[in-house]
Amino acid sequence: MSAIQLTDLRFAYGKGPEVLRIPTLQVNAGEKVFLFGPSGSGKTTLLGVLAGVLAGYTGGVEVLGRDVAKMTGTQRDAFRGSHLGYIFQLFNLIPYLSVIENITLPCRLSAERRARLNGVGLEQAAGDAAKRLGIGDLLHKPVTNLSVGQQQRVAAARSLIGTPELIIADEPTSSLDYDHREKFLELLFESCKAAGSTLLFVSHDRSLMHLFDRQLSLPGINKAGT
What we know:
Layout: E1 2-12, E2 18-28, E3 32-36, H1 43-50, E4 58-63, E5 66-67, H2 73-83, E6 84-87, H3 99-109, H4 111-115, H5 122-132, H6 148-160, E7 166-170, H7 178-195, E8 198-202, E9 214-217, H8 218-221
Parallel strand pairs: 3-8, 3-9, 6-7, 7-8
Antiparallel strand pairs: 1-2, 1-4, 4-5
Helix pairs in contact: 3-5, 3-6
């Protein structure tokens, strides 16, 4: 089964030039894929299309067996909240919520995702993930009081809670030092393996490539960027 299936995907912002033109791309369920490419090659745009954040494209986009183009905006939001874990490049934390409130938010918004905790209390699940990422003592702090690296780890914990079937990570280790990067990757890979989740991981750090099942170069699959 394919977790991601793209067919003749084309996307442009408004009346501008095409940013994406991908004839075909398939990511298998349970696969860990490393995606790289220079700035401006369309990496973040592609992730936005896959997550249902960006619409207005042509071609086929199937995610977890669902045709994203046929969903309404509300349906895309619900689908993303229930089935996808997204680590945004700019974190997208809710500034007026505490660390634990940010981490638990996906499960509070999605009953499906909350059910996948398998009886573990929501706050316990959040605390366990936070502890493993080195932010266990910050759970009740406002996220605005955290460093950039700490905020990135909050975003990572939020994406992993409730074992989503597809995790999309946009430069998730860019603000982490070596030790915290290693802890984050260990937790990410363990979570994906335990849940059978698919991982699409975007990074400029090619030293991480060997840790993944497959590597993709966006200029190589995106004909608009060549």
